[in-house]
Automatic annotation (TrEMBL):
It comes from Panicum virgatum. This is ABC1 atypical kinase-like domain-containing protein. Pfam families: ABC1 (PF03109). Residues 2-209 form the ABC1 atypical kinase-like domain. It comes from the Eukaryota. Transmembrane segments: none annotated. Belongs to the protein kinase superfamily. ADCK protein kinase family.
């Protein structure tokens, strides 16, 4: 006998079976035993056959671009894999190995020796459904963990509905049911990150190319027309700020507006969308203002600033230096967002640990952007600082010359801006903003380099004097 005790009746219902509570005879541990219902495979096979027939008819009748039968096949493939509980147990082992050590995440242990094709034995987890407890913190944990699943490891839980997410008795987020898992290839992960960056930075030309890369649009789509359409779909939402962008609303608007360009949802993407939409839905149920994209973007900003993959390096370089012009606004935005990111180190409830995590975050970003790993960013910064110093030299010389001339008899007192052109003023403005960025980071690091000798008001007064009154440095 495998079990010394087992509940006479099911304690819960699973999608394909019933769950019993039992105790292992070998070690006395309490386990969950999931038993598949008889005849499930035959019944589901018939259902899928009928649904596939109806999907083909619906696609033809409605003239849909999305290949509904292919989307159904992707879902059915996951469902049939889910029917083999040995596969689910292997998924659970992999998920526990990758994410079980995350702070405040709990993944049950799988008992492979006791598991069979129609019987799964796993650790029993006590807790309440996440949807029934008002815990915003655990939702943030879930978002961070999901982003790591999707974009870091490419192995993600594709069925995070409320019944599969628990708040444990010790306050952790527990994942259950590993039958439906998805895989996200590296090139698609990079494409998804690029699309988010281009969306938030209003680079709709690049976003149109991302849609082709992700398979949302065919390569034959007219890029100019697509860019106009994407601008119409996204611009108002982006103008309200990334924290106000609703993932669900954007998905719906996108399908309606982009239909004429043969916009489609690739089969692989349907599970990704479902996973993110379910998370947003859980959060909205007790926080109507929650936006999963707003919580995700700081993580994405941190990722693109610290990842050393050639693809993301190229993306960052193109983002910061568009048409040969340094985009300091984008650098400021990326840095400020990256410092808001929730990471494994910053997923903490204690305030002092939050402070330590902020310092860790700053070090992580600086260790990449200001060392050989992030040489391309460092080179851009050095080039801009050099340009600013050149302009600073011109402005200082002009100011000194003007001051000397004003002491001469009959001097008219020439303007300090006489030797500065628009490019010089732009370079001075960028230098000022870069010094403020470095000052802000240095203050959070509790260090005192040269750029922190002057505070913001002193820096501002100094540069306004050099550039002339009325010049906007911000």
């Amino acid at each position: 006998m495998i079990f010394s005790e087992i509940s006479p009746e099911p304690v819960a219902a699973a999608s394909l079976g019933q769950v019993y509570q039992a105790k292992l005879r070998s070690n006395g541990k309490v386990v969950a035993v999931k038993v598949q219902r008889p005849g499930v495979q035959a019944a589901i096979s018939l259902d899928i056959y009928i649904l596939r027939f109806l999907a083909s008819l619906a696609r033809k009748a409605a003239k849909l671009n999305t290949d509904l039968p292919a989307v159904l096949d992707e879902w059915a493939s996951s469902l049939f894999r889910e029917m083999d509980y040995r596969e689910e147990a292997r998924n659970g082992l992999k998920f526990r190995e990758l994410f079980g050590k995350f702070r405040d995440v709990s993944v049950p242990e799988m008992y492979m020796e006791q598991t069979r094709r129609r019987v799964l034995v796993m650790e029993w987890i006590e807790g309440e459904k996440l949807s029934e407890v008002r815990d915003q913190y655990l939702v943030e944990v879930g978002v961070y963990c999901s982003l790591s699943q999707l974009l870091e490891y490419g192995f993600y839980h594709a069925d995070p509905h409320p019944g599969n997410l628990l708040r444990t008795v010790d306050g952790k987020l527990a994942y259950l049911d590993f039958g439906m898992m998805g895989e996200f290839r590296q090139e698609l992960r990079d494409g998804f990150i690029e699309a988010c960056l281009h969306l938030v930075n209003r680079d709709f030309d690049a976003l149109a190319k991302d849609f082709v890369t992700l398979g949302l649009l065919p390569p034959t789509a007219q890029k100019g027309e697509v860019t106009k359409a994407l601008t119409g779909v996204f611009e108002n939402a982006v103008n309200r700020g990334v924290q106000n962008i609703s993932f669900g609303d954007l998905s719906g608007n996108l399908g309606r507006t982009m239909y004429k360009f043969k916009f489609q949802i690739p089969s692989y993407f349907s599970l990704v969308i479902r996973s993110l939409a379910v998370l947003e839905g859980i959060a909205i149920s007790f926080n109507p203002n929650y936006k999963v994209l707003g919580s995700s973007y700081p993580w994405i900003a941190r990722k693109v600033l610290t990842d050393n993959s050639p693809k993301l390096r190229s993306t960052l370089q193109a983002l910061l230096c568009k048409d040969g012009t340094f985009q300091i606004d984008r650098l400021e935005s990326l840095l400020s967002e990256s410092l808001r990111a929730r990471t494994e180190q910053s997923l903490v409830r204690n305030q002092q640990e939050d402070v330590d995590s902020a310092r860790y975050a700053i070090k992580q970003v600086l260790s990449f952007t200001l060392t050989d790993q992030g040489a391309f960013v460092k080179d851009l910064l050095l080039q801009e600082i050099a340009k600013g110093i050149d302009a600073l030299g011109v402005a200082t010389l002009s100011s000194a010359t003007s001051a000397a001339a004003s002491r001469l008899p009959f001097a008219d007192g020439p303007s300090p801006l006489t030797s500065l052109d628009d490019e010089d003023v732009t370079n001075l403005r960028n230098l000022y903003r870069l010094l403020l960025l470095l000052s802000k980071v240095s203050q959070k690091e509790n260090s005192s380099p040269v750029c922190t000798i002057f505070n913001r008001s002193q820096l501002s007064a100094f540069f306004i004097h050099l550039c002339g009154r009325g010049k906007n440095l911000g």
